[in-house]
Amino acid sequence: MTSCIRDLLSNDEFIARHIGPDSAEQATMLAAIGIDSLPQLIERTVPEAIRQANLDLSALPTSENDALVQLKAIASKNKVARSFIGIGYHDTHVPSPIIRNLLENPGWYTAYTPYQPEISQGRLEALLNFQQVIIDLTGMEISNASLLDEATAAAEAMTLMKRSNRKKNNNLFVADHCLPQTIDVVKTRAELLEIDVIVDDIANFANHDVFGAIFQYPGIDGSVNDLSPVIAQAHEQGALVSIAVDLLSLVLLKSPGNMGADIVFGSAQRFGVPMGFGGPHAAFLATKDAFKRSMPGRVIGVSKDSHGKPALRMAMQTREQHIRREKATSNICTAQALLAMMAGFYAVYHGPVGLKKIALRVASLTHCFAKAIQAKGFTTNSSYFDTLIIDTKDQTDSIIAKAEAKLVNFYKASATQVSISFNETITPADLIDLADCFGITLSEDEVTEASAAQGFDAALLRQDAILTHPVFNSHHSETELMRYMHQLEVKDIALNQSMIPLGSCTMKLNAASEMIPVTWAEFGRIHPFAPSNQVSGYHDLLKELIDMLSKATGYDTVSLQPNSGAQGEYAGLLAIDKYHKSRGDHDRNVCLIPSSAHGTNPASAALAGMKVVIVKCDQDGNIDLADLAEKAEKHAAQLSCIMATYPSTHGVFEEHIREVCDLVHKFGGQVYIDGANLNALVGVAPPGSFGGDVSHLNLHKTFCIPHGGGGPGMGPIGVKSHLAPFLPGHAVTPVLDMAEQHGAVSAAPYGSASILVITWMYIKMMGDRGLRDATFNAILNANYIAKRLDEHYPVLYTGKNGAVAHECIIDIRPLKAESGISEEDIAKRLMDFGFHAPTMSFPVAGTLMIEPTESENLEELDRFCDAMIQIRKEIGKVQDGEWSLEDNPLINAPHTADSLLDMEWTHAYSRKDAAYPLPWIKARKYWPPVGRIDNVYGDRNLFCECPPIDSYED
Ligand SMILES: Cc1ncc(COP(=O)(O)O)c(C=O)c1O
């Protein structure tokens, strides 16, 4: 009975909406695993030495509505100006059907990276479309999909040139007309690889002997020049050339591929993705066929399925083709897939004709404005696509002030120059307003009747056709686009279909209330370099988030700059390196990494110029303390750090983590705790309190940013105070509260700032209690699954008291030896039950790693366990000889509807066994769109473009 109105007010309803099991279900699960209460489970699971009862963010749970109201108040402190700042970020019209059907649609944003291609054909096609857009516009032979931002793409281009060029030379030329944030990140990344970056005028290129060069087209000075001569000259000198490009300009301009470029990179932001105060946006890197096998990032390719039909998959993928641990060429893992899909759909929606209209409108309005101000005596750059550098002399500040008073932002290019970059959103009325800032009166007719013309040499106009593939010429009405997007969406399994039990990936709920603010203009339409007096809402949000995340992790402060977990690793290692050097310790470059680590750990260490030394794990999967002691001592003088994941990637809370940290500290090393598994630590054992000096937090795991089919993500790093002075800064906009601005690791000062609202909402709505309960339940759910499955599939590792952490590894190796059925067969068979497979063969080959997260209720956990147990029974039938190893539902999985309709059914099992192996499947059947995909064929016959439409037909 409720006794008063207070009992009817509820601020904590969201906790129960986020956490799957209610108290009755929790009791059932606890009984199943033989434990009395959740606190007792935590006592049995988390080592006493690191347990810390209180999480004190001083945050009470807030209702969804109140949290949105609070966030709206913060948002309203941001001023949405009309932005003409440019410098790599442009306002754009995000097509409404793309907002509604993709950005705000869990069918797209809750999907995972397409490692299991049979249930990912929709997003693979969307990403292939993106690659085709990039190939067509850049004029290159192959493109990836995608990278984190334009500046890190430049750094990837640098390292690709370095390893592809046999020339013995460590000098890189970067033209000073490149974006300042690009130069900043390239310098950061070059330093530890001992590459010398020469920043100079492109006119002086011939004076330098280099292995590679980076130019920009059009340059930051707005000018549009034919780069063919300087590219030819570079090739003559034995250098490779990378060009940073602006995608919209390439709709009109001759392509850099046509000019002879080796690599072309850039950002796809202005193809319908909001500026978002810096991100998230997809970057791209395209290159020549000759370099395809050393491309960074993911590449989507065409292969065929078991029925011989075309099917898509990630090409060259042995987990990540470029993350070869310590021999890595890149550490890119999570990488902006959702934003690449948005850009791809933007091109699908507008098509070549629509894009040309947009590009020509931007170019023509720029030209019209240039003529108008030149007529009044202002001088500008003589060639331009969308950017004018105007000599404003002593009027510079007054013009900028006049513009700001109208909430119009220009960029101050120098003390005497204003830079204006025009974009898709500009109207004739805006142009009139802009002219007024220069004291010029323009009439509407003068603008609208001006001829459509561009401000660059006609010889540079593109002659070749772009986007000729049917997909770019078919879906221009909203009805057609909506249906095409829906067709792709339903091919895939995302969280709106069933649980995604991917170990280490934490596929938890991304709640609607967390997602709603992402599309608010006060967060989306803000340029990352907007004047600080326009972004105080963002500043409040960043400060509050830094405070909350610091408290949740036990660190002193947090850098919000890294755009992914792997970038966080890199930024953390950089801070460690700078810290050692600041103390005169110049030789500390050994990074100890347990053999069970995620591939990005050694990859990031290699990119930070460190020497990776692998530490063994013992038979229980724990770090082998004796081996660690031996290696730490052996490398004592060079010991930089250890990178350890906690709870370990083996899914257990290692008892000796404090000893591990103490040992490394004893030899002068620093401790990097990989925070990918923070879902088991928040409110229970913050890594900063048991010995970590730095950790990255995958906000796209523990803190609810959706995975988006392979990104966005955010990888902020928490650090202890001694590392705080060495966090990344920024060349254009100084990072808040940083005394010294060290080199940046991302293009924008706060990475993908607009999605930080998701994490803010999650923390606010959960409060201290909810966050702690989430951890408890994540651990409960994993232990329940381990208990139910153990008698069917042995659980590989457990902690001291027989419990697992928030995930568990089941060992398929003995079963495979007995039956011939592999972990891959199980993974593919799960698709017939409507489930995404658990993580396959990581960190131990021949195993499956299951992470249910706290968001799944008992019914869903049981459905998954029932499916796994049914599969075990099927394996039993193969073992018993009832079904042969060559013909059984596991080896033939997944089963498409098409294959079941074959008149002739020759299999040893029935159609019903194939499609409806358990009764409940019928009511919610997911039909895999393709049969099992041939990986080897795809890699041998690498084809990474949209195939002609007729190849999809029978
Ligand atoms: C343990 C671990 N560390 C690091 C990473 C890399 O994170 P990201 O994909 O955000 O770069 C992952 C990603 O799955 C991971 O599981």
Concise description?
The chain contains 31 helices and 24 strands.
Describe the structure.
This protein is an alpha/beta fold. The chain has 3 domains: 187 residues, Aspartate Aminotransferase, domain 1; 431 residues, Aspartate Aminotransferase, domain 2 (3-Layer(aba) Sandwich); 201 residues, Aspartate Aminotransferase, domain 2, CATH 3.40.640.10. The chain has 31 helices and 24 strands. The chain has a 7-stranded mixed beta sheet with strand order 2-8-7-6-5-3-4, sandwiched between helices. A 7-stranded mixed beta sheet has the order 15-21-20-19-18-16-17, with helices on both faces. Helix 8 crosses helix 17 and helix 20 runs parallel beside helix 25. The longest helix has 39 residues. It starts with a helix and ends in a 14-residue tail after the last helix. The site of pyridoxal-5'-phosphate has 16 residues, from helix 21.
Helix content: 25-40%
Beta-strand percentage? 5-15%
Strand segment count: 24
Q: Describe the largest sheet.
A: 7 strands, mixed
Write the CATH fold name of the largest domain. Aspartate Aminotransferase, domain 2
Query: What is the CATH C level class of the largest domain, in words?
Result: Alpha Beta
Number of alpha- plus pi-helical segments: 31
Shape: globular
Cα-based radius of gyration, to the nearest Å = 28 Å
Cofactors, ions and other ligands in the entry: pyridoxal-5'-phosphate
> What strand order characterises the main sheet?
2-8-7-6-5-3-4
User: What structural class should be given to the helix and strand makeup?
Assistant: alpha/beta
Low-confidence stretches: none
Distance from N terminus to C terminus (CA atoms, Å) equals 65 Å
